[in-house]
Amino acid sequence: MSFLNVIAELRSRKEPISQEDLAMGFGGDSWTGKSVDRISSMGIAATWAAVRLLSDSVASLPLVYYRRTDRGKEKAVGDPLFALLNRKPNKESTSYSWRETAQHHLLLRGNTYSQLVRDTSGRISEVWLLDAEKVRVERSKNDGQLFYIYRNESTLLRDEVLHIPGLGWDGISGYSPMEIAVQEFGYSIAVKEYGSEFFKNDGTPGGYLGFPAGYKLKDKEAIDRLKHSWNSAHTNWGDKHKIGVLED
Asked: Do residues 1 and 40 touch, judged by C-beta distance below 8 A?
């Protein structure tokens, strides 16, 4: 993917370019030369089936919320936070859609982030899912605390973000499966495109028609008609393997 294509992929011209965008612009291609992103990877049937199955399954699981007590734990059915997570995390999302999308982010990007919005009393009133591709985790040089930079314009403290990482190395951020398996994704995309091009433009003729020796097409219009005839006979669906025409 060229740098200009990365710019074109941004949702808005006002949106800043993240490190992930720059990484895709410089060296984000697979060995096959095919660029891999969340759209192209989800275009692979196996990826779509796996991500959809796992995301839907996690989202449909019962959400059980516990409160710690002196004797262990107990279900906190009446807790406001339980009602928030179990029904409507924010004014635009249901619990199902929030958990489904969060799992989708986790499967492709290795991390899922949600911003915790608090009311004047400090209680969590809304939970908003963040774009996992636009979040960067940093550690403060002063006190060593983690903080999150979103879209290169917002800084969120650790207690403002619900961060669920997948398998990782440092215990903070998870690996991005889409980046780890970029070669496999790129190969699958290349195979699919090659097959599509083969069926779209299979120029294998079923036979040949020749002209007498010494006869050549000199008229440009005749040559153009011959090209058009050949393409029509061998590239259109339902017109494969027809007779080819060869001069001389």
From this structure: no
